[in-house]
C-alpha cells in the first residue's frame, strides 16, 4: 500500500526532486511527439443518466437546474435517489476492452487515455483508499486494468487521467437542501468532503482544499501511478489552485522517478499554468494556438460540441471539422487528444465508431504527413485563422487557399483544408529576387497528391508554386506532397 513515507522515499532516491528547478529537466518523449493523435475516454456513473453532460453529479444537486428537475422527474427526490444510487445501474455488460483498442487503432490513434476518476469520485480502477470503485461495486471489473492489458497486445500507448481535485466541492450543493449528501461525511465516504463550491477559476479561492484532502489526493494519485504505470498522466483544470502546488510537485517527482525505474519516459499534461513551464506538457482544452510554438503541446477536445460523455442529445462534429483540428494542431507543434463517450453498458455509440473509422481511413492515406510531422518555417497560409485560447470553436469553413504545412524527412506536406479545383497556388513556395523576402529558395524535385495516382505538374513562380490538381472526390482536406532536393 502506498504511504506518504513511501512517496518521499521514491522522491529522495531518484533524479527528480519536488521542486521546479529539478522538474524543469523533463523532456517530452519522442513517441508522444511522433504519435500526434490520441483517444480520450469519458466513461463512468454519469453515463447512466446520460443527460446533458458529464457534470450531472454536480448539477443534479443545484436547485432549479435542468439536471435537478430531470432527476426529480425521472428518478425521484435526491433524498430518496441520490447520485450514489446510479452505481448498481452501472453494469457495463457490453464492455469489451479488446474491441475498444482495436477501434482506436483503426482510427489511427497511437495512444489512448481513459478517465481513471472523474470529479464524481467513482474510481474506474482498483484502490485501497475507497470502496467506491468499479472493482468493488457496479461492474465489479477493473476497467482501467483491463484496458491496459488489451493495449499491451497492440502498439497503442496506455495513458490515463485524474480529475479528483474538483471532488473537493463537486457535491457541495447537495448540502443546501434535503438530499442524500447530508449523511455524515467522513474521509472515505463517496460524497466526502462536499464542501461549498468556491470561485473555481480563482487560484486562491476559499474554502481551499484542506491538508487532509490534499494528502488523500496525493496518496490516490501515487497509487494510480504505481498500480497502472501510465505513460502519460493527464490532470484536469483545478490543480492550478494554489493549495495543490506542493503536492503536485511531489506527484511529478514521484511519477518521473518511477518512469526512470521502469525505464520508460513518463509525462504529465497540465492546464492553466498549474505547473511551471517546461516541467510537463502544456494542455489546451477545446482550443489551439494561432501559430506554431517552440514547445510541444496538446489540445483535448470532444467528438461532440456539447458533452464529453455519452448523452441522448449529442451534437456531433463532422469528420471534416475534426480533421481540420488535427491538421491545425500538428502544423503548430502539437497533438490532438479526441474524446469519445461510451454508453453505460460499455458499447461505443455507432456514430462515434463511424467518425473514428472515417478519420482512420483518411490517416491511412494522409498520415505520412501527420505522424512524425514537424512544423515548417511557417504553419500555414490563407485567409482563415483560428482564435487562440481555450474553449474557442474552430472556423466553420476553410477555403482552398487555406493551407497548413508539416515536414517529414525530405518532404514538405501542404494540407489543403478545402479540396482545390483547377490549379492550386502555394504562395509560401514563391521564388523571389529579394533575399529579404519570405520566399522559398530550395529545389523542388517532385509534386503529388496523396491518394491520387494521376500525375500533377508543379511550376515555381514569383507568385508561388502552381500545381495542377487531379479530380478530387469528397470534401475532406487533401495533401499535396512536395519532395525537396
Question: Topology, pairings included?
Answer:
Layout: H1 4-13, H2 20-23, H3 30-35, E1 37-41, H4 56-59, H5 66-74, H6 97-106, E2 111-117, H7 143-151, E3 157-158, E4 160-162, H8 167-170, H9 211-228, E5 232-235, H10 245-262, E6 267-270, E7 281-285, E8 297-302, H11 319-331, E9 334-340, H12 350-366, E10 380-381, E11 403-408, E12 411-416, E13 423-426, E14 444-449, E15 458-460, E16 465-468, E17 478-484
Parallel strand pairs: 1-2, 1-9, 2-3, 2-4, 4-5, 5-6, 6-7, 7-8, 8-9
Antiparallel strand pairs: 10-11, 11-12, 12-17, 13-16, 14-17, 15-16
Helix pairs in contact: 1-10, 6-7, 6-12, 9-10
Count of strand segments: 17
Number of helices: 12
Class based on secondary structure composition and strand pairing = alpha/beta
**Low-pLDDT residue spans:** none
The proportion of residues in beta strands is 15-25%
Strand order of the largest sheet: 1-2-4-5-6-7-8-9
Distance between the termini: 58 Å
Give the SSE string: HHHEHHHEHEEHHEHEEEHEHEEEEEEEE
Percent in helix:
25-40%
Describe this structure in words.
By secondary structure, the chain is α/β, with parallel strands linked by helices. The protein is 25% helix and 17% strand. The chain has twelve helices and 17 strands. The chain has helices at 4-13, 20-23, 30-35, 56-59, 66-74, 97-106, 143-151, 167-170, 211-228, 245-262, 319-331, 350-366; strands at 37-41, 111-117, 157-158, 160-162, 232-235, 267-270, 281-285, 297-302, 334-340, 380-381, 403-408, 411-416, 423-426, 444-449, 458-460, 465-468, 478-484. The strands form three sheets. Strands 1-2-4-5-6-7-8-9 form an eight-stranded parallel beta barrel, surrounded by four helices. β5 (232-235), α10 and β6 form a beta-alpha-beta unit. α1 crosses α10, α6 (97-106) packs across α7 (143-151) and α9 (211-228) packs parallel to α10 (245-262). The longest helix has 18 residues, at 211-228. The radius of gyration is 24 Å and the shape is globular. It starts with a helix and ends with a strand. The model has no long low-confidence stretch (mean pLDDT 96).
Amino acid at each position: 500500500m502506498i504511504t506518504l513515507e513511501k512517496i518521499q522515499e521514491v522522491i529522495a532516491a531518484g533524479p527528480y526532486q519536488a521542486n521546479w528547478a529539478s522538474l524543469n529537466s523533463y523532456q517530452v518523449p519522442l513517441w508522444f511527439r511522433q504519435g500526434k493523435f490520441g483517444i480520450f475516454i469519458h466513461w463512468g456513473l454519469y453515463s447512466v443518466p446520460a443527460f446533458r453532460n458529464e457534470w450531472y453529479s454536480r448539477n443534479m444537486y443545484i436547485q432549479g437546474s435542468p439536471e435537478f428537475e430531470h432527476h426529480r422527474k425521472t428518478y425521484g427526490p435526491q433524498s430518496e435517489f441520490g447520485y450514489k444510487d446510479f452505481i448498481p445501474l452501472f453494469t457495463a455488460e457490453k464492455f469489451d476492452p479488446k474491441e475498444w483498442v482495436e477501434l482506436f487503432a483503426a482510427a489511427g490513434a497511437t495512444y489512448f487515455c481513459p478517465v481513471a476518476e472523474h470529479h464524481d469520485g467513482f474510481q474506474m480502477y482498483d484502490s485501497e483508499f475507497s470502496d467506491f470503485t468499479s472493482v468493488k461495486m457496479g461492474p465489479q471489473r477493473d476497467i482501467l486494468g483491463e484496458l491496459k492489458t488489451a493495449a499491451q497486445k497492440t502498439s497503442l500507448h496506455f495513458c490515463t487521467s485524474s480529475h479528483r481535485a474538483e471532488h473537493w466541492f463537486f457535491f457541495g450543493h447537495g448540502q443546501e437542501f434535503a438530499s442524500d449528501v447530508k449523511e455524515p461525511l467522513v474521509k472515505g465516504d463517496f460524497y466526502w468532503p462536499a464542501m461549498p463550491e468556491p470561485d473555481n477559476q480563482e487560484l486562491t479561492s476559499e474554502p481551499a482544499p484542506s491538508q487532509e484532502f490534499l494528502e488523500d489526493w496525493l496518496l490516490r494519485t501515487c497509487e494510480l501511478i504505481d498500480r497502472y504505470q501510465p505513460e502519460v498522466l493527464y490532470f484536469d483544470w483545478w490543480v492550478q489552485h494554489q493549495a495543490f502546488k506542493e503536492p503536485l510537485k511531489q506527484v511529478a517527482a514521484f511519477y518521473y522517478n518511477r518512469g526512470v525505474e521502469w525505464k520508460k519516459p513518463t509525462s504529465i499534461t497540465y492546464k492553466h499554468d498549474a505547473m511551471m513551464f517546461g516541467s510537463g506538457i502544456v494542455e489546451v482544452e477545446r482550443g489551439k494556438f494561432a501559430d506554431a510554438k517552440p514547445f510541444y503541446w496538446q489540445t483535448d477536445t470532444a467528438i461532440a460540441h456539447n458533452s464529453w460523455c455519452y448523452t441522448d442529445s449529442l451534437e456531433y462534429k463532422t469528420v471534416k471539422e475534426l480533421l481540420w483540428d488535427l491538421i491545425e494542431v500538428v502544423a503548430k507543434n502539437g497533438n490532438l487528444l479526441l474524446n469519445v463517450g461510451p454508453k453505460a453498458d460499455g458499447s461505443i455509440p455507432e456514430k462515434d465508431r463511424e467518425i473514428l473509422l472515417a478519420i482512420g481511413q483518411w490517416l491511412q492515406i494522409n498520415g505520412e504527413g501527420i505522424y512524425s510531422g514537424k512544423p515548417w518555417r511557417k504553419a500555414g497560409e490563407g485567409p482563415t485563422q483560428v482564435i487562440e485560447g481555450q474553449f474557442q470553436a474552430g472556423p466553420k469553413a476553410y477555403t482552398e487557399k487555406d493551407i497548413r504545412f508539416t515536414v517529414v524527412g525530405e518532404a514538405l506536406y501542404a494540407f489543403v483544408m478545402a479540396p482545390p479545383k483547377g490549379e492550386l497556388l502555394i504562395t509560401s513556395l514563391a521564388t523571389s529576387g529579394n533575399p529579404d523576402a519570405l520566399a522559398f529558395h530550395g529545389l523542388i524535385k517532385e509534386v503529388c497528391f496523396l491518394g491520387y495516382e494521376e500525375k500533377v505538374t508543379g511550376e515555381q513562380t514569383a507568385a508561388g508554386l502552381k500545381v495542377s490538381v487531379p479530380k478530387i472526390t469528397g470534401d475532406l482536406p487533401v495533401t499535396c506532397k512536395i519532395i525537396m532536393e
